[in-house]
Amino acid sequence: MEYCDGGDLSTFIHSRQKLDENVCQLFLQQLASALQYLRQNNVSHMDLKPKNLLLTSKINPQLKLADFGLAQSLGNDEKETSLKGSPLYMAPEILLNKYYDASVDLWSVGVILYECLFGRAPYSSQNLADLIEKIKTDCAIKIPTNVKLSPEVGDLLRRLLKRKPEERITFGEFFNHPFIVGVPAEVAAEKGRQLMSLIQRAKDYESVKRMNEAFDIYCDVLKQLIPMVQSETDLSRKVWFQEKADFCFKRAEKLKALTSVSKDVKHTPLPASPSVAAFDELRALVSTTPSLKSALDIGVVAVQYDAEGQFANALGGYEAALQQIIQLLSKEPRGKRKELLHKQASIWMSRAEKIKIQLETHSEAQYEDMRQCNIQ
Fold first, then answer.
1. Does 246 share its domain with 122?
2. Is 302 helix (H, G, I), strand (E, B) or coil?
3. How far apart are CA 18 and CA 16, in angstroms?
4. Which pTM value belongs to this model?
5. What are the catalytic residues?
6. Model confidence over 273-314: pLDDT tens digits?
7. Which of 236, 279, 329, 365 is the 20 to 30 A CA-CA neighbour of 21?
8. Phi, psi for 364 (deg, rounded to 5)
9. Alpha carbons 350 and 368: distance in angstroms, whole number
10. Whether residue 35 is found in the same domain as residue 165
């Protein structure tokens, strides 16, 4: 087995008392990657805690998920009743002898994030009886105010630590949350330089009439830019990424319209509605409403997952986007914006339903057929 000589996350936290938010973000992104793989295979870990998160080294460590002794197969809609886990990180519904589902892992992630940020678990106690009594109470977790948190991590922490499972963040929302898909400033800057180099290469290909290569690069860059636009919290960088995404989208659409390119890439999907102009218009109309703009960004990321055949992730993204859009549609006044929002929601809802049916059948042959669909 791989040797991890950096110890475990529990020791790492205690040696530093608490971790900076950017360190927490990197570790949580790595944990989310592991959980994403587990959910794709309908596996629940059931014992997530810092001692089960190993670090590859003492310098620039990578987090590794370990100890699957309590893990079990548990689909998104399946329930369980057996007592499993470590009490300090155990979801309330397990201790209360209620049915529970795979979302108990998300509660554990919330406790881990809390401990990383504040140096202790939210229900720290002197003995087991006191701990169980605290967990059984119906009081919301209190977030300390003596540590300055970004809006993104504060939002994620509160949504992970919802005592009622039905109010807790879903796996799809978790994997697409800005704190999870976001990147530190220095990483974003380096990524921006890499993408600009790719965009310049695509322009060079265009100048010598190598349209197929240019098209492929624009699509690849666009796929990378969309989650960065969604997650970026710095306004100037967000605008910069959005401008580059818009440029790549328009160039790719123009190249796709050329006969010589279309023949070769007829199955390559782009993140827009059937009418590119309509989707552009919708994005412009919601630009002044952050909640709607965020919903569209999440939906576009779902389209990219869909195009890559990552259907469980795509379904989570579609559902997260639709949840926001549908909530806001009821308050939206009549007009062009509401009409376009309704059409886009219908497209994504239809696609989500098809994916859900396919996932429930667990048919690999059908998965391969879905790759060939024009998802928009």
1. no
2. helix
3. 5
4. 0.51
5. 47
6. 334 567 778 888 887 887 788 788 788 777 767 766 777 778
7. 236
8. -65, -35
9. 19
10. yes
